[in-house]
Structure prediction request, 250 residues.
Amino acid sequence: MALASFSFCHRPSLGFPTPAAALSSRVSCSSHRLNTTLTEINNSGVIACLRANSVELALEAAGAALTGDISVLEVTMSTPGVFEVILQELVQNHPRKIMGVGTVLNAKDAKTAINAGAKFLMSPVILKEIMDDVQGGEVLYIPGAMTPTEFWIFSAYNAGAKIVKVYPVTALGGTQYISALSKPFSHIPMVASQGIKIGNSIGEYIAQGASAVVLSDAIFDKEAMGQRNFNTIHELARLAASQGVKAVER
Prediction:
């Protein structure tokens, strides 16, 4: 027999809550939703990153990836209609998936993305104005960092980041760089991003200390996108999702 599920974000009230109780409930709800996003990223091991030159192409490609078992999808700011059409439609059609926006470079775009339904925001650098705006909210901010000092990777974490994107990881040394970072910063969850391929790379990055990897062209293959070959994108997504889960479970 299936057990009824519930969320403490929607508990029935037995009376009028005090202001303190209402605030506590909102904070708990926000924390719960943010942790759900972070948990899904950690459990899946893969964030699919989509760039497209039209709304129609983006929706078709995203649909192919999401039905191919991708559970976390990032749509970049450069994609036309990312807020007005794509994000809202994807959130509506795939409510159990985690949707986010990438290459967010200012607080205005961050707020627009959140209003459109984004569960996470990603930047190539650390942007304090976005970090400050999302603090205490239900949206996960993943800033980018390159050096240990930057770590900021450390600086980003101290500023409140729950997880940090290491970018551009391939140019910095790939899995060896992640391994080197994870030794002094084992307490900081990291997402490896840039140039990662489907195959042994996913498992190697996660084995060396990454919580997840970002896959762009590896899933949204340029030739397949150009030919609108969504079957290929679907199969690449299935393969990437499978490899991500296996890597995390090891």
Q: What stands out?
A: Strands lie at 46-50, 72-76, 98-102, 120-122, 140-142, 144-145, 164-166, 190-193, 212-215. The two ends are 31 Å apart (CA to CA).
